[in-house]
Specification:
By secondary structure, the chain is an alpha+beta fold. 22% of the residues lie in helices and 39% in strands. Strand 6 and strand 7 form a beta hairpin. The structure holds cobalt (II) ion. The site of cobalt (II) ion (CO) has 6 residues, from strand 1 and strand 5.
């Protein structure tokens, strides 16, 4: 483990993901909350999820609705109901970061980086290793 600020592996929080039952209704609420418009909606078919993004100052919120009952978001909603789903950290080199975390004993939910919403490669870290919080690593696709 290193605490050398010159070698920070994880950068800023890229976005916070919130699981919702009804994306349209959630978009309407969050648009009012942040006094802004959703700037992008996107379906990630492989994940069975429909997403909407809002920008609030430097912060980004991702709203997630399940598109099929067996998707990870549907399972989360069944188990825990609506609410905060994950925190996403931006990384420069997702493969290197995945390897580092694996060596530290974290359980990664995917072995290879996979395409996520908003032009990102993503990997999720199991919430059991992060005190109940699902962590996402994301790297901008070039
Ligand atoms: Co996300």
């Amino acid at each position: 483990m290193t605490n050398n600020l010159q070698y920070l592996d994880m950068n800023k929080i890229e976005h916070i993901g919130i699981a919702v039952n009804n994306l349209e209704k959630a978009c309407s609420s969050y648009q009012k909350l942040f006094n802004t418009l959703v700037y992008k909606t996107e379906e990630v078919a492989t994940e069975g999820v429909k997403t909407a993004f809002l920008q609030c100052g430097p912060n980004k919120i991702e709203l997630l609705e399940a598109t099929r009952p067996d998707s990870p978001i549907a399972k989360f909603l069944d188990k825990r109901g609506e609410g905060m789903h994950h925190i996403a950290f931006e990384v420069d080199d997702i493969k290197a970061e995945m390897l580092r975390l694996k060596n530290e004993g974290f359980t990664l939910l995917n072995e290879e980086p996979k395409p996520g919403a908003d032009n990102k490669l993503v990997c999720f870290v199991h919430p059991k290793d992060c005190n109940g919080v699902l962590m996402e690593l994301c790297q901008e696709m070039k």
